[in-house]
Design brief:
The complex is a heterodimer. By secondary structure, chain A is mainly α. Chain A has helices spanning 2-47, 65-72, 74-107, 113-121, 128-142, 148-172, 176-184, 189-218, 221-226, 233-241, 247-276. Chain B is 22% helix and 33% strand. Chain B has helices at 43-51, 93-99, 111-121, 137-149, 167-184, 195-201, 219-224, 229-234, and strands spanning 3-14, 17-28, 32-36, 58-63, 66-67, 78-81, 155-159, 187-192, 204-209, 212-217, 239-243, 249-252, 255-258, 269-273, 279-281, 290-301, 304-309, 316-321, 337-341, 348-350. In chain B, α2 packs parallel to α4 and α3 packs across α4 (137-149). Chain B is elongated and about 80 Å long. Classes of the chains: A mainly alpha, B alpha+beta. At the A-B interface, α7 and α8 of A face β6 of B.
Amino acid sequence: MNTAKQTVDDALNRTSSTKLLSNITWRVVIGAILAFLYLPIVVLVLFSFNSSRSLSWPMTGVTLDWYRKLAANEQLLEALWNSLYVATCATTLTLLIGVPAAMALDRLSFPGKGIFRKLVLLPIALPGIITGISMLSMFKLFGLPLSLETVIIGHATALLAVVVTQVFARLQRLPKSYEEASLDLGAGPLHTFLFVTLPNIRSAVIGAGLLSFTLSFDEIPVTFFLTGRDNTLPMYIWSTMRRGITPEINAVGALIVLASAILIVTSVLLLRENSNSR
Amino acid sequence: MSEIVRIESVTKQWGHVVGVDDVSLAVKTGEFVTLLGPSGCGKSTLLRMIGGFEDPTKGSIWLDGQNVTHLPPNRRDVNVVFQDYALFPHMSVGKNVGYGLKFTDEPRNQVATKAREALDLVGLSDKYDAMPSQLSGGQRQRVALARALVRRPKVLLLDEPLSALDANLREAMQVELRHLHQKVGLTFIMVTHDQDEALAMADRVLVMRNGRVVQDGTPDDLYDRPASAYVADFVGSTNMFRSAVVDGHVQLHDHVLELPERLKTCREGQFGFRPEKVRIVGSGEGGANRITGQLNELLYHGSTARLVIGEGPNAIIVSHMLQDHSGRSALPQLGEDVTVEIAADTLMRFEPEAGE
């Protein structure tokens, strides 16, 4: 009797300890993955508040000096402004082309539609360096001077795939009968698009727009080939980095992380609401 | 009554696929017409062409004397109740119903009032501010009706309007739609694959098959005088058999049945009779056109039962009330021999159809 009970207890203990062990293992694994992903960002943000210039642990003190310096750095502010300009224009251009392209893919049927769709989506898989070089050659061929505008065109081609994919996916789930009902009730095609189609794909459009904005804002390879004398923020950071990592750079980085995080979270939320509706 | 819709030799083809094949029809003002047929028979395509969502390959469509064949949907005075209702999910019920009024001469300040009136008509005046997602299936159906009716179209098109509702609600809505039709006095054209629905609701039913209209008549015509074996089988059910005609008699398996006077001189062909028109008689009674066989199966269908008498290919199906008027069971027992009478004038003969 006694031994039997003991065996049962042992077995119970063993299962619970195995459970505990596997629980701990999982926590370690998850922690390791998160550390792998986010430790560099934590380091960046922490050292942007470090009072010493040197990147060594432990930190010597906390300061906001680097953020103050940043606000006084005109080159950096100009680069930031350029980046915002490029990202805004590239996103707008992409949406203006991408939304109609997605509508065409979804609503029309024409010969070669399958190929058209693949061709539109291809640039997403194309390395930025290829887009950069090929567009550089093309602009040179046409005699177009390089400027922020050429960068915008470069970004837009790469981002088109993002917008078309998102909007197309949403349109596919939108019943055709909404548009038919609107036409049936007397609305013209433009009114139907603005007041029936657009409100129902709005979240996909906004989400794709925010994602495009973030991608364009951070972009280096295409920008590198296509910009003239103007620098965008990532390019500026990259060029100052050749003189070593300064806490100032960390401060810019921390601000970009914050802005990107806000944009990405917003776009994810919008896209999720989008899949929940209906 | 004047003619409101005229369809002249309309054909719709996609490449080699023929959806609607040379259909002509005229609908009078105030009629309730149903297009009935199995899926793929072309009934929905025909409706969509009247609505303006499909362009006919050949032929023309006239609405109240105007040729509308190639006009877009927003320029025709017809409205559709869609199968999935197609209520705009981002607008309130009231805004949905009022949507179509923005494109009419209706003064702006009248839109809300008219929308409320239309909702009142379908018994949903309290749902003006609700969102479509908060409504039940039956309520959405009514909103879709109100939204289409508020524009007082010349013709209301209904595309399988009740197919998404469950059985009880569907029957209630059949009655309600019928009442609504009488109340508003508009012309209704409805598409359905459900023969009960078609017979229950319409003044006139067009049975379609492979893109053609195979019969155009009242529910009575379709039931009592089906034009073909196909219609007889699709509208209600029919016991079919082939037989030669000898001396004004046909042979149903081992039994000889007398034909009615009108069919006595016809040649061999396909014959049929309705399960509902067969009478169960006592085995002792003599008489013409009687068949005796073993009752092998009993299938309950609401207040009636289907009796399978005889075996295999020789079986005939008889429909009978579950109970007699005094409430006693009126059914024979399984395995019993049952004698039935197939009266001569219930026999129908069908011409062979093209392609059969």
